[in-house]
Amino acid sequence: MSVLRDPAPGAAAAAAPYDALLLLSFGxxxxxxxxxxxxxxxTRGRGIPKERLKEVGQHYFLFGGVSPINEQNRxxxxxxxxxxxxxxxxxxVYWGNRNWAPYLTDTLREMVADGRRRIAVxxxxxxxxxxxxxxxxxxxxxxxxxxxxEGLDVPRVxxxxxxxxxxxxxxxxxxGVLASLAELPExxxxxxxLAFTTHSIPEAAADTSGPVEEHGEGGAxxxxxxxxxxxxxxxxxxxTGVERPWRLVYQSRSGAxxxxxxxxxxxxxxxxxxxxxxxxxxMVPIGxxxxxxxxxxxxxxxxxxxxxxxxxxxxxxxxVGADPRFxxxxxxxxxxxAAAERGLPVERCALxxxxxxxxxxxxxxxxxARGAARPAAAGADSPYx
Length: 385
Ligand SMILES: CC1=C(CCC(=O)O)c2cc3nc(cc4[nH]c(cc5[nH]c(cc1n2)c(C)c5CCC(=O)O)c(CCC(=O)O)c4C)C(CCC(=O)O)=C3C
Ligand SMILES: [Fe+2]
Known about the structure:
It is found in: Cytoplasm. It is a single chain. The protein has 13 helices and eight strands. Helices cover about 45% and strands about 10% of the residues. By secondary structure, it is an alpha/beta fold. The protein starts with a helix and ends in a 44-residue tail after the last helix. It has two domains: about 1-165 and about 325-340, Rossmann fold; about 165-315, 3-Layer(aba) Sandwich (Rossmann fold). The strands form two sheets. The chain has a four-stranded parallel sheet, with helices on both faces. A four-stranded parallel sheet has the order 6-5-7-8.
């Protein structure tokens, strides 16, 4: 058996020049006492109304103060290590977060102590946007600066490209939609609409998402989500032979009420669809890599209650999570980027119409909305090599 699985010669070196992979995520509370300090970490300097924070705290308390995100990252780490081992990719995998332990700076310090010098970074956010991309790059720069201040030799960090349109991300979503359709009562299945959801962000942040030439209404953020939604809807139609109406909608709005954020909200959309006579809806959270609190609360709790009130049958499809196809996609992204860094020609997988995303965020990509620009690592404007 093992002979059949032997990789192509040289696979063990396929990760060079990288000597480690860092899974970079958001972090979440692991018990009731963690909730308030976690929210303080998330919202420091971000101008979120106190009322909104109280409300979001309640979402966490409803689930015992435990965010599902850390367990899911642990499962993804296991899936990555298993996939790498099975494919003889000799690359240790580490995990660090923006807002909760294990904190990014601590993980990077440990990586330096282990002698890691050239680190590939996978963020658990698949799309362009300030929150999903540049903010992680700022976190990397801050952590590297902290290590530098401690007198440590700063490693090089390279962020892997956005994977929203990678088949290893999209195909599990398609399977999730097919499974959700099968869950719906048979008499409403054929007529079920698809509501693709993602995190709402301020309109201004959407308009300036992605490289400067992609700025404009909705920016790269909306364009990328629409492309994934269309790809998934097409694949579901090909599988089921049924053409279904679909729309990209939003969830988890935050911020001050007078600032415009992307709309419509999923709950308003369910109401509209019900008013138009839609028999059922599958909610497809394409904006999330795993079943975050936003999925458990905003979709499985709030939107599902709204649908029940309307008498509208709904199902929520699975996020990618630790799907082995996603783990394999991460390996492919590492090997692809490693080859590119070695100056070799690379084949880059991407479904849909946009093509593979860039390796290096150009200057002006996904700028922060407020305050002076902060240094960001792993981009064309990085202060680090
Ligand atoms: C685009 C996007 C993603 C998707 C990309 C990605 O996955 O990274 C994302 C992920 C996440 N957001 C999360 C949690 C929170 N986000 C908040 C606030 C905000 N998010 C924003 C955007 C995004 N957020 C924005 C524009 C704000 C307003 C404040 C600001 O401009 O920064 C707040 C404060 C309270 C509130 O305002 O809701 C919380 C608690 C968690 C953890 C969930 C868990 O525990 O399972 C995850 C994965
Ligand atoms: Fe968020």
